[in-house]
Structures are given as structure tokens and as C-alpha cells.
Backbone:
């Protein structure tokens, strides 16, 4: 799901529709055109996406033999994944190199709080659920507040029910499924001191991720571009020892190279020796 722009600087998203169902040559031509036009591509893939989608994305990257395609699959619910993709679209308007921008996704994940209000946890397998909660989920009228990220938490909705929220200023997005309740907007959002609340359509993958269509999904996040930019700019950067691109962290999101092996030279040295020879 591509969320609407957060501000006038937010770059538009390119949605790879039915990438696993279209003929391979069509998807390949689309990806090649995107790489040639933009230079580098960051593909944000939901963890709820079918296995066939993930396989097709890896196939496209492999066939293009390109280190300019980063595949990022954050362990987040669908709405939070859409929020993270929009944050990267915001940052893409700044003077940030492709490697740092792609690496920023792993940093921004830590500042997202995501969960849902569910009518049942009987089919929930993304968050640990005890036997007592499973049993109570069969009682008529039961509802559960579930926090999936950053720390899994599950509570049965009562007047005293609460979920731990962010310790910094955030806004909240709410996506309603087939569940009627004002607990998220009337109780949770005020307790989290959300500085703004907006409703968006429920992502198509949400019922499958949460195990029920009777839900209200929510996500709190950092909305302002200056704050996002400062977070990314304050982190130490390095160079990938294999492809040479600027990165944050110890693993390149484009060529997937990890920390250098002290026993072997980087690719740049190998290519230099080959050229000399």
C-alpha cells in the first residue's frame, strides 16, 4: 500500500503490481526501466507478501545482475511497512546517498510502534499468544489490544487495559477493518499522546497478517522530515568494502556484503590486481 504524501517534498511511490503474476519478461523490463531512470531502486516488501512475490523480486535482481537494487523486507505489520516506505520517500528528497537511504530503513524501524485491535487471537501467529488468551478469544464480545512492534504485547480490552507507547512525539495512523470500536482513537491515541491522528484504508495484506478481518490496525511514527533527516545524519557512515557504496551499519543493502573478512581483500583490490595483471 502506497500512502499519500506526508508533505509536498515526499516523492511518489512506484507500485510493482502483480509482480508475481505477470510474465517474467514484463516485470523484468519494468524493473530495468526503473533502474535506468532512477539509478538505484529500494524495494520495500511486506513480510506478509506471498512467497512467490519475494522469489520473483530476487529473480529480477539476479537476472539484471545489478547491485543497484536493494530488497528490504522489514519485520513489521502491513500498515507500519507502508509508513516506513513513506518515510524513505520523504528522505529521498534530501541530499542522502542511495546506500545511506536504503540503510536508513533499518534505523527508522526502531522508532515505529505498531499493533492492532482484534476481535480474536485464535489465528494470530505473529505475536506470542498464551493459552488463556486463546480461550478467551472464543468468548462473545472479546477484544484484544496487540502490540507487534517494537516489543510484542497482548492485553484483553478492559477499562484498565493499556499498551506501552513511544516515549517521544509521534502521529498515529489508523486503518479500520470489519470491527467497530473507538478504543484505538478514544483511549490508546490519548494515552500515547499522539500529536495528530489520521485514518487510511486498511492494507489488503492486514487480515492475513493479523489472522482476522475484524480488526483496527494502528501505527505511531515520526512524521517530520527534519527529525527523520537528523536521525539519519547523526549515525556514523562507512563504505561497503565490496561495492564501495556509502552505508549505515555493517551490511550493505545493495550487494548484501557483510563485514570484511580480514583474511581476504575486498573486491576493489581484486579488480585492481586483475587490471594490472
Residues:
Amino acid at each position: 500500500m502506497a500512502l499519500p504524501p506526508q508533505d509536498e517534498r515526499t516523492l511518489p511511490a512506484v507500485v510493482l503490481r502483480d509482480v508475481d503474476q505477470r510474465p517474467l519478461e514484463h516485470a523484468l523490463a519494468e524493473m530495468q526501466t526503473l533502474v535506468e531512470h532512477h539509478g538505484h531502486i529500494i524495494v520495500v516488501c511486506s513480510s506478509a507478501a506471498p512467497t512467490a512475490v519475494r522469489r520473483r523480486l530476487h529473480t529480477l535482481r539476479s537476472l539484471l545482475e545489478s547491485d543497484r537494487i536493494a530488497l528490504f523486507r522489514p519485520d513489521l505489520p502491513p500498515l507500519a511497512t507502508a509508513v516506513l516506505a513513506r518515510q524513505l520517500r520523504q528522505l529521498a528528497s534530501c541530499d542522502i546517498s542511495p546506500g545511506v537511504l536504503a540503510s536508513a530503513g533499518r534505523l527508522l524501524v526502531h522508532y515505529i510502534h505498531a499493533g492492532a485491535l482484534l476481535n480474536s487471537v485464535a489465528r494470530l501467529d505473529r505475536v506470542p499468544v498464551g493459552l488463556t488468551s486463546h480461550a478467551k478469544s472464543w468468548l462473545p464480545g472479546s477484544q484484544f489490544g496487540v502490540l507487534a512492534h517494537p516489543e510484542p504485547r497482548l492485553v484483553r480490552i478492559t477499562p484498565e487495559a493499556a499498551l506501552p507507547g513511544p516515549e517521544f512525539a509521534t502521529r498515529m495512523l489508523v486503518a479500520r477493518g470489519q470491527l467497530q470500536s473507538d478504543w484505538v482513537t478514544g483511549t490508546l491515541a490519548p494515552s500515547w499522546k499522539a500529536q495528530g491522528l489520521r485514518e487510511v484504508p486498511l492494507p489488503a495484506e492486514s487480515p492475513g497478517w493479523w489472522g482476522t478481518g475484524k480488526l483496527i490496525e494502528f501505527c505511531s511514527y515520526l512524521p517530520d522530515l527534519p527529525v527523520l533527516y537528523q536521525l539519519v545524519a547523526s549515525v556514523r557512515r562507512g563504505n561497503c568494502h565490496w561495492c564501495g557504496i556509502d552505508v549505515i551499519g555493517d551490511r550493505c543493502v545493495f550487494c548484501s556484503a557483510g563485514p570484511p573478512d580480514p583474511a581476504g581483500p575486498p573486491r576493489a583490490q581484486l579488480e585492481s590486481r586483475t587490471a594490472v595483471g
Notes: The mean pLDDT is 87.
